Amino acid sequence: MCDLGLSLHGTVIEDRIKQLYSELADRGLSFRPHCWLSDEWFSPDGVPGIAIPFYLAHPRLIRLERKQVLEVEGGTQDWFMKIMRHEAGHAIDTAYRLRRRKSYREAFGRVSVPYPDYYMPKPFSRSYVLHLDMWYAQSHPVEDFAETFAVWLRPRSRWRAQYRGWPALKKLEFVNETMQTLLNAKPAVKSRQHVDPLRSIRKTLREHYESKRAHYGLDYPNFYDRDLRRLFSDKPEHSRNPTASAFLRRYRTELRKAVAKWTGEYQYTIDQVLSEMIERCRELDLRCSAGDDQTKRDLMILLTVQTMNFLHEGHHRVAL
Fold first, then answer.
1. Pairing mode, if any, of strands 287-288 and 232-233?
2. 291 and 182 in one domain?
3. Which stretch of 57-71, 137-151, 255-269 has the lowest confidence by average pLDDT?
4. Residues 212-245: pLDDT tens digits?
5. Are residues 230 and 93 in the same domain?
6. How, if at all, do strands 34-38 and 287-288 pair?
7. Which of 170, 200, 230 is the last residue of a domain?
């Protein structure tokens, strides 16, 4: 895919893998998931390991990722380790075939239920831990386990105090008790296979990002003229005011980041929506008709509502 001679060794990634291993050791676990570079984050079914996206292996690729899709998933140490703990949950689930246990199914539900194309989270539910964005534990029983494991594994985690009185505490107690049974146990699944390793991927970087941008940018929601005219104006008395398109360009980054944080959607997808809004405002010759602060608030609400409508129609990002 690229010619930077990428590997896990001698990189920041290697240091963070060692950090994960240290966290597992601190919990008394001897299990160590193997790791390799691929094109995205995942832990494969049947393989107790973790694939790490190639772009995190080199500063130039991190900059390219941010330029192409406007964010770098796992790009900070905190974010990287959050994802690693989550994926380690999947890996230990696989290694010890935990999901086959009746107690696992009683705690998290049937893992045989189909993975959803999208899910509609309940933000105020106390039946799930909070770890990754968009209430990811609610997406599927195996994600619920992985998220619960990640919260349990986090150094200096005060999970008993944090989740006191929550139904989710029972899940954390299950993880805690189950991990005690694994302290001296050998994994049932020992495969060291690398699934879709970087060396086997024949796409060029151009092809990779064309595909990725298409996946997260083509099917964005439509904005109707009525919505835009509620926020801006084409009346003669506002003809000397700043254009709506210029206003959107000025606050584009701020709007995009805020809505991405609220919805969990990729910034790239939201930016495509904003591009459509800017173009349509230009075509309609819309002008600002209210103060900047009020207009920004209204825009964030509109953009959030439309994005959530988009997600609930079946295009939710379920990536890990």
1. antiparallel
2. no
3. 255-269
4. 877 766 444 455 677 888 889 999 999 999 999 9
5. no
6. unpaired
7. 200
